[in-house]
Fold Ribosomal RNA large subunit methyltransferase H.
Amino acid sequence: MKITIIAVGKLKEKYLKQGIEEYLKRLSTYAKVDITEVADEKAPENMSEAEMQEVKRKEGERILSKVGQDSYVVTLEINGKMLTSEQLAAKMDELATYGKSKIAFVIGGSLGISEAVQKRSDLALSFSKLTFPHQMMRLILLEQVYRGFRIIRGEPYHK
């Protein structure tokens, strides 16, 4: 399985980079995982709705340019479907079983994702009704993907 995480913005926090490196190392046993960063747009504090939509549109174009035609696209959205770890694992297993071996997870910028990216999405996934920094979501997502592979293989993992 090939997993691509497409994320808006650069990761600066050393502690997050270390956690991500650890999970990428752990995941190398199960899948090829790449993280692709796309540039974020400058977003001043007091933007109009039209300006916010324009920022999301530009980031969305960058995201879509990195999505493969044959990829199953999972967007991380606050209003997406909530799954348990077991359900996410079952979805990953189902995709692999039915020949969808390329999965692209999309983490938008601070304003979310564009309508065009939402339309390309095969599954809108929410990790919580809480709002998390989009940089931190990379680490949380990698941990859940790793947990998913452990569940699929029937390997122990702390609950």
Remarks:
- The radius of gyration is 15 Å.
- The chain is about 45% helix and 20% strand.
- The chain has a mean pLDDT of 94.
